Amino acid sequence: MNQSPNTLVECVDAQGNAVGMAPKMDVHLDATLHRAISVFVFDEEGRELLQQRALSKYHAPGLWSNTVCSHPYPGEAPEAAALRRLQEELDMTAELCEVFVMRYRADVGAGLVEHEYDHVFVARALSSPNPNPEEVQAVKWMDKQSVKNALLTNPEIFTPWFRLAHNEVLNCLETNKQERAKMLLTPKGDHAAFLYSHADASESVPA
Q: Which CATH number does the domain housing residue 31 bear?
């Protein structure tokens, strides 16, 4: 099921507390902080599954990104949304683990801004992808180094949230060491705060 621009999403404060709901298009026009999910699926060989966004998408059409990126319905648990969207976009099942939350803001063109409190999951593929053409233009499995090289040489072919999250996802996989909240700044000027569940909530984190 392709989510329409009128689909309701959950608006949140900087700590991820729900504060209301609004149509998806409205939050991207107004740059309202809202809840999102991003899933990075890997196979037994350590390759990651990338998707090219359908050309009909209302923003970032045709760009390459992580396996799934979407929004929970208001009140829907992020993991449930991740599993649902894997099924809807790729007819796929996977074993999920949430590794961090990425709070970021990025211009996605056409006057639209992504400002998301993004629950980021890594996942082990339990089935092969069967892309829904309404959602996905193409998919491909790539080894981690090839993805890193592509991000360095052709960052413009990837979505802003993928550019922001990718290295941190690999850090979580390779070191299994969750660090305190930290800021990443990319050459494009996009920025994100990486928040971990055990970080002291009383301490400030980047806005």
A: 3.90.79.10
Domain membership of residue 3 (yes or no) is no
116 is catalytic: yes
- Is the model's pLDDT at 74 over the cut of 60? yes
pLDDT tens readout for residues 97-141:
898 899 999 988 888 999 999 999 999 999 999 999 999 999 999
Which of 48, 89, 116, 135 is the catalytic position?
116
- How many domains is the chain built from? 1
| DSSP secondary structure of the chain | -PPPTT-EEEEE-TT--EEEEEEHHHHHHHT--EEEEEEEEE-TTS-EEEEEEPTT-SSSTT-EE-SEEE-PPTT--HHHHHHHHHHHHHS--EEEEEEEEEEEEEEEETTEEEEEEEEEEEEEESS-----TTTEEEEEEE-HHHHHHHHHH-GGGB-HHHHHHHHHHHHHHHH--PPPPEEEE-TTS-EEEEE-TTS-TTS----
| 193 has a pLDDT exceeding 80 | no
Indicate whether 87 belongs to any domain: yes
Q: Is 179 a catalytic residue?
A: no
